[in-house]
Amino acid sequence: MKIIFSILFLLIISGFAGIAFGHTVDSVGEYRVEIGWMNEPVVSGETNAIEFYVSPLEPGLELEDQSFKNGIPDLNKTVKIKLIFKEESITLPLSPDHNIPGKYYAFVNPTKSGFYQANILGTIKDTPISLSMHPPKVDERAYIEFPEPADITITQMIDGHTALIEDVSDLKDSVSSIEDSQSSNIGYIGIGVGIIGIAIAIVAINKSKKN
User: Fold this and answer.
1) Beta strand spans in 10-116 (E)
2) Is 7 part of any domain?
3) Which of 72, 78, 139, 211 could form a disulfide with 54 if both were Cys (CB 3.0 to 4.6 A apart)?
4) Are 109 and 124 spatial neighbours (Cβ–Cβ below 8 Å)?
5) Is the pTM of this model over 0.70?
6) Residues forming a β-bridge with 55
């Protein structure tokens, strides 16, 4: 049993590691290219950036064995990233990392959760690049929000209920006054108006709760 739990634990940890460091690697000509989100896990409604790395391929190594080193500088002048989400797209310029040659950022605020496509367009030195890559999924912002946001606070709800009770009490007094001073028909009309007013108030409170 302990062995089974240990295996499950390792699988879970490795799954989280894959999410936390989910970069995509590909190649164009003699160059290794890599993209991923700067801040992971990435959530909607939060400013982030696509990290973009470019370095020469090492001869004799498979792509999965290649690592980023000896990065290619100055590609912010010749390469851009076109980010696509469903039917919408935006072209993002690259900002170089001043401490790491060959590393760039394309800053963006992904406002919706889901899968985005990054089209790498331009030239790496003399090599044209037109490559579609897919960074990890953007999660819904509520995934990490705590406590849950609310459009109406508890204090506002209490104040609203208190005001409603006071209005209903005043309405009852008004109806009683009408019944005492007017004919029974007018009194019934007043009662009807009062009931409609109470119903409208209840609907308004329920609607505010839902929002």
Assistant:
1) 24-28, 31-37, 48-56, 79-85, 88-93, 95-96, 103-108
2) no
3) 72
4) no
5) no
6) 32
**CA distances (Å), 17 to each of 13, 21, 29, 50, in order?**
6, 6, 30, 18
CA 46 to chain centre: 6
- Per-residue model confidence as pLDDT tens digits over 91-102: 999 999 999 999
The CA-based angle 85-97-109, given to 5 degrees, is 25
Whether residue 199 lies inside any domain: the answer is yes
Q: Is 163 in the same domain as 136?
A: no
User: What are the structure tokens assigned to 35, written together?
Assistant: 């993209």
State the chain's mean pLDDT as an integer: 78
130 DSSP β-pair partners? 121
CA distance 34 to 114: 20
Residue where one domain finishes, among candidates 89, 116, 143: 143
Structure tokens belonging to residue 84: 């696509």
Residues 91, 58: one domain? Answer: yes
- 107: CATH: 2.60.40.10
Query: How far is the first Cα of the chain from the last one, in angstroms, to the nearest whole number?
Result: 48
73 shares a domain with 171 = no
